[in-house]
Design a protein that fits this description.
It contains 7 helices and 18 strands. By secondary structure, it is α+β, with helices and mostly antiparallel strands. The protein starts with 11 loop residues before the first strand and ends with a strand.
Amino acid sequence: MARRRKGIPIHGWLNIDKPAGMSSAAVVGAVKRITTAQKAGHAGTLDPFATGILPVALGEATKTAGYIVDDSKEYVFTTRWGEARNTDDIEGEVTETSEYRPSQEEMQDCPAAFTGRITQTPPVYSAIKIDGKRAYKLARDGQDVEIPEREVLIHALSLEEILDTDHARYRVACGKGTYIRALARDMAVTMGTVAHLTQLRRTRVGPFSEINAISLDKLEKLWQCPAEFEDLLPLTTALDDIPAVAISETQASRVRHGNDVAVPNQADGIVCAMSEETPVAICRIEDGNLFPVRVFNI
């Protein structure tokens, strides 16, 4: 007999505004505690010192999380010139200092060299796996960690404000896999100095933005009346860029059991099969046939 999952079945997305000093996993744990949802997960990890948008999937929405991870993201970050740290952020130890401070012109012109497809070496203190082990764990054990360069896409990068001699704030829109800590580090090097991040805020992840984000404190207060809660977003929120294909209830029954169905005149590709207003499955269409990839148990 299958083990009965604890909690209540809730399916959808919460657009959480993560506070500083809390890991992404801890945020998910808090959401599960507040909502008593059976299942929860997040899309796109944020460092503990960072704040901002952390989409949290509940129930069957967890099956769509991969589509959010691939979406573009936007951040606002503050650099501290003249001081490098081993983590490339405020939580690390100082490894190098420099007396040189970039001029206003240098800070304004530098983003042009980091826009488009660029290569960067992720921070040593990152979750990237090296020979099956997380890089940050190897670094904490005192091992030399060599992380290969990777190509990332920077859609837009601009100077927002010069806060003082040592600090400047930038805004960036980027593709998946981009490390903002590495971006700030590399920008400083091109300007003849060193730097680390003192603040990092994610303002958008795909369709999730800070305009309608909700804090954990607000969630806890409002969730006391779940029937009236208006901030739970549909399961399909993560599938905005995927075409929807309508199928009959008879076809939906077959798809739910893992069977393919005929959908003539439909283009090949990944789609979301819908039975009226209910999402049935993420599917693949090939040669007029629809094959289930991830079935939603709703």
